[in-house]
Each structure stands twice: as C-alpha cells, then as structure tokens.
Write a structure and sequence with these properties.
179 residues, alpha/beta, Spore Coat Polysaccharide Biosynthesis Protein SpsA, Chain A, two-stranded antiparallel sheet, 4 helices, 21% helix
C-alpha cells in the first residue's frame, strides 16, 4: 500500500512574534517543529513520500533537511488558509498513493505509533482522525432571552481532534481534501 504524507507548514505564525514562521524556529532541542515532523514521517516505515507546504517565500530555498532525504520529498507553496496549503500539496502527490496522511507541522510531538494507528484505521474504515480526551471545560448553552451556562460536561466524553488525519483515496468525496 503506497502512503503519501502531507505536512501543512504554510502558515505565518504571526501570533508567535518571531521574524520567521513558528514552524521554522529551532526551539525544540535545537530543531524546529517542522524538522521534527519531517523526521518523524521520513523515518516511518509506512510512509512512501512526503509533500510539505511552506510559505511561498521559502519554497525556492527550503531548509536543508527538505533538500536531501531518504524518501521522495516535494515542497509546494502554502496558501492563504490551511485548506489551501493542503490542496496545493494534494495536487502533487504520487498517482500511486492509496492513503494520504495529513499532519500539521505545528504539532511536533506526534509519535510513530500514532501515525501507524491512523493509517491502519484509514485503511480499515476509509478515514481516520487522531483524537484525545478533551482537556478544556465544555459548557452547553441554552438561549431564551438570556443565555445561561448549564453544568459543564465531563471533558473525557468530548474528544479533541488532532493530527494526523488519514484517508483512503478511493473513499474520499471529491471536495474532501480542500474543505
């Protein structure tokens, strides 16, 4: 089974306040969030190729770890929104791809086991999204003329979506990758 991975790293990270996008700042053991994500996918035995969506100004001269790798890597310009970056990357994946995994570079602590489970779930059911028990308080609102907060829900019952997400290409609706 041929598996392509897309790393969405096309954002500006303006709230981070650094002179370069946050995914390119070497802040985690001397490596950037992007480099950690790239290394994770390059070392994963089920990943056959990697497509990275970067801010347009970095595409012509990407970081060194994107220039020479043990697996095929393509670098594409990101878009104005995450979905645009993913669509640009999706447009260049290998025609042999049966499953595509999408990961956000801003999530540098994913594990190989998480990626394996996500791929397996997508292969079995058509699509999968990594999720974890919620950590934030969730409240239900009832609106009449005055909005009131009801009893907070236990967060363990409200999963929080994360990345990676994966899907079999044959099972996706045409607009799935750009929504």
């Amino acid at each position: 089974m041929f598996v392509s991975a897309i790393i969405a790293a096309g954002g500006r990270g303006q709230r981070f306040g650094a002179p370069v996008p946050k995914q390119l700042v070497a802040a985690i053991d001397g490596k950037s969030a992007l480099e950690r994500s790239v290394n994770l996918f390059l070392s994963h035995p089920q990943i056959d190729e990697l497509v990275v969506a970067l801010p347009a100004e970095f595409v012509g001269s990407p970081p060194p770890y994107l220039r020479a790798a043990p697996k095929p890597i393509r670098v594409v310009a990101g878009g104005a929104r995450r979905q645009d970056s993913v669509a640009n990357a999706f447009g260049v994946i290998n025609d042999a791809a049966e499953i595509v995994v999408i990961h956000d570079a801003a999530r540098p602590f994913a594990s190989a086991a998480l990626i394996s489970r996500t791929i397996a779930a997508a292969a079995e059911s058509g699509a999968a999204l990594a999720a974890m028990p919620g950590r934030r308080t969730c409240a239900a609102f009832c609106c009449d003329f005055i909005c009131t907060v009801s009893t907070p829900s236990p967060t363990s019952r409200v999963p929080q979506g994360s990345t990676a997400a994966a899907a079999r290409l044959a099972s996706r609706p045409a607009a799935w990758w750009t929504a």
